[in-house]
Amino acid sequence: MKKMTLKALRLQIIRKFQKVDGQFALAFCDVSNPSNQILINEKVTFHAASTMKTPVMIEVFKQAFEGKFQLDDNITVKNTFTSIADGSKYSLDIGRDGDDTLYHQIGKQKRIRDLTYEMIIYSSNLATNNIIELVGADNVMDTMHEMRAYDIRIRRGVEDMKAFEAGLNNTTTAYDLMLIFKQMALGKIVSKEVCDEMTNILLDQKTNNIIPAKLPQNVKIAHKTGEVEGSRHDSGIVLLPDGRKYILVILSKNLTDLNNGIEWMADLSLSIFNFMNESPN
Fold it and tell me: Which residues, including other chains, have CB under 8 Å from residue 10's CB and lie 6 or more apart?
């Protein structure tokens, strides 16, 4: 069978985009061979949903490296936060969170390391807001700018409904998420050891219905998903058994059939994997 070219794969993806009711963006980059890259709608802005938790994790490890705190330090878990819209107080609803276990520990001490882990693998909103209060959304933004990810905007914590209604949302592009994951894959965020530790957290991701869904079990995926009304995202590093790595980011919005959109994105991930399998170094 004739090997698929990069150009043919790109055209195949575009045709698939046109068959699904919604809007999509994709960024694919072969870490070991940068000429293998596909960018489609890569600069279009999307609600970041929980993909914003990867930049927040990066800021946690950066500040820990700088000595502002230790990852094994404890902080008190709380559920009262300040809206960036008007300074009023709000709390998170356990029924809207991807993880409810932390709500039983409000008022108790938790390690920063553990909160960061729960923020990523269970997508805990409560852990996220506690961590953002620790590191500061403005500092996350500054770090993203240092990494040249200028279109990732981390303005606030999660479930700040007054800010949401005012349009003050966390946003991203597929291109910028690709940038930060590529730097992680190359060991260029703070240090290789820090990148390895963040990658290991992402490898434990519990939501695996998009990028990993149809890939062989011996393929490891260090990734972070996201979902908000009408949108499903996935983004991360795919680690192949032969040691190669590639970055894949798939963002969506205005999906009228979420299950169909998720299935299609999982198919897309498999197409990228098959292309990489046919194109060994």
Answer: 38, 40
